[in-house]
């Protein structure tokens, strides 16, 4: 199914989402990669506030390229999410609701998603221009010294995403290949020569 969501979101808004569903996300999305996540952990360890309201937030793992004249943002394809695995459970426990990136997540992240009724959404890797097209506004809100990894506030409209991890513990990276191979077996066809 396809859902339209606007941030900030609640657990109740995310509860119907299942791995494999698509989402058109609108509202505020914050950008942060591993360098910014490390700094966020340092703030928390020092008893300080995060640079954005974490409750119900969406964080996109992206380091956009510089925008060209007349553009809001440059290419904005996702970063490999596993680089944030060490930090994500803590942020989810503090109320972050949506993670956006690409690639599989570790078991601790999966457990934190279920524990908090959160979701992990995949952006299209290799389609930075498509992802950038949904960005209507951009503001660097902290750590400008990190360059492309500075934390930004994006205002997005209908950003196209796919649910990978849902609040029930389903993981599209596990169920997708199994479903595909089941279909092949049911239809007595040989799968193409690809690695799954």
TrEMBL record:
Q: Specify the superkingdom.
A: Bacteria
Q: Does the keyword Lyase apply?
A: yes
Keyword Lyase among UniProt keywords: yes
Per UniProt, what is one Pfam family of this protein? Answer: Fumerase_C
Keyword entries, A-Z: Lyase
Q: Which GO terms describe its molecular function?
A: hydro-lyase activity
What range(s) does the Fe-S hydro-lyase tartrate dehydratase beta-type catalytic domain occupy? Answer: 4-175
Q: Which family does it belong to?
A: Belongs to the class-I fumarase family.
Tell me what this protein is called. Fe-S-containing hydro-lyase
Q: Which organism is it from?
A: Flintibacter faecis
What high-level taxonomic lineage is stated for the organism? Answer: Bacteria, Bacillati, Bacillota, Clostridia, Eubacteriales
């Amino acid at each position: 199914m396809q859902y339209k969501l606007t941030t900030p979101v609640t657990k109740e808004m995310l509860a119907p989402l299942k791995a494999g569903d698509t989402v058109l996300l609108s509202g505020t999305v914050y950008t942060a990669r591993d360098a910014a996540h490390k700094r966020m952990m340092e703030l928390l360890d020092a008893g300080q506030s995060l640079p954005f309201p974490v409750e119900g937030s969406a964080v996109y793992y992206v380091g956009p390229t510089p925008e060209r004249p007349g553009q809001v943002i440059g290419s904005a394809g996702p970063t490999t999410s596993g680089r944030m695995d060490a930090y994500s459970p803590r942020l989810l426990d503090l109320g972050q609701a949506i993670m956006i990136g690409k690639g599989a997540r570790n078991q601790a992240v999966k457990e934190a998603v279920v524990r908090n009724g959160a979701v992990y959404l995949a952006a299209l890797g290799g389609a930075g221009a498509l992802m950038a097209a949904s960005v209507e506004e951009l503001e660097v809100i902290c750590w400008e010294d990190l360059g492309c990894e500075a934390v930004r506030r994006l205002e997005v409209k209908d950003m196209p995403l796919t649910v990978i991890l849902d609040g029930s513990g389903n993981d599209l990276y596990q169920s997708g290949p199994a479903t595909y191979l089941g279909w092949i077996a049911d239809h007595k066809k040989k799968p193409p020569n690809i690695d799954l």
